[in-house]
Amino acid sequence: MQGRTDALTLPARHGRWVAGLLATVLLGSAAFARCSLERIASLPVDVTGNRPMIAGEYAGRPVKLVIDTGATMSYATQTGAARLGLAVEAAPGYEVYGAGGKERMGSTWIGSLAFGQLRIRHVQMAVIRLQPAPLDETPDFVIGQDVFTRYAMELDFPDGKLRLWQPHDCAPAQIVYWTQNYSMAKLVDARSDAPAIRATVLLDGKPVTATFDTGAPTSWITRRVLDALNIPTEAIDRHPYVVPGMNGQPIHGEMVTLGTLALGDNETVRNVKLRVGHLFARDQRSTMDSRIPRRLSGLPRMLIGSDFFRSHRVMVWFHASRMFFSYQGGPIFQTIASPR
After folding, report:
1. CB burial of residue 91 (10 Å; 0-12, 13-18, 19+)
2. Which of 176-180, 236-240, 255-259 has the lowest mean pLDDT?
3. Which of 116, 122, 239, 337 has CA atoms 20 to 30 A from the CA of 7?
4. pTM higher than 0.90, yes or no?
């Protein structure tokens, strides 16, 4: 990274989704005479139980929102819609797919949802039923990539912050303003119609496309990955456990020990323990020409969850198809229980 913080100023202009811009960081380099990061928002994040929650407001009432980088769209939860008195219409033929299986969805109109410096106004939003969360913390809304892809998104969970930036005249590496010691990964299909934070990782030297998903409390690989990589059976811990999926259906899991996991161009984790299970076995669809359910294509083979984000500071810039991250300390992958 060729850059340093030169100045901090307060711009006066506003964006379409932004109530107020907070700051501009100016970064100098040999390649660019002037690289500026316009800070759009800085939001406090509570990562209790590995659920990244932010506070918001809807129609003058406080609401809870989850930051879910694995969701391609933002949506209201069935619990939140009922609590706020939102009128929910049926959406026949529409379904959402996730770990544990599929779930039908409805739709509602959102008048004005504010969180930090951001505000969503007058949009139609899906309504999806989620499995009830512990501690009575089922969110009212889930904020997905349809909001985040327009910015450079900094996920600083170790410091409890989500920051959104608008880079101007910057090379990709210049936006890593907090350190010179980082790892970089190229995003896969970052410009697609359904963007997700996907990058190639190496499991024992073999490539696997992983989805970086803050909506998953812990990191997982699917059983299909083990079969494809010919992982020896002695690496699997045969002490099964069960966790609920998105729709409440059980996901049966075990544990696997791998020699190495390489992420990006500058980080390798050794003696890695990961959860393994049939995450998407129920994600199937019947087509018009056949009533036999077929497995959906393009489902994740590996989820890198909030346990990774709790131990790293991460910057994702979809416009440049790049993700940058630096290790901040603590366990990278949690195999027992998430810390409070």
Report:
1. middle
2. 236-240
3. 116
4. no
Interval 101-120: pLDDT, tens: 456 788 999 999 999 999 99
Quick one: residue 273, left, alpha or beta (phi over 0 = left, psi -120 to 50 = alpha)? beta
Alpha-carbon dihedral angle through residues 27, 160, 119, 146, given to the nearest 10 degrees: 80
Q: Which residue has the tokens 């450079």?
A: 152
Asked if pLDDT for residue 304 goes beyond 60, the answer is: yes
What backbone torsions phi and psi does residue 187 show, to the nearest 5 degrees? -80, 145
Write out the two tokens for 85: 């008195």
Cβ atoms within 10 Å, residue 186: 15
Cα–Cα dist 123/141, whole Å: 14
Residue 120 contacts residue 138 (beta carbons within 8 Å): no
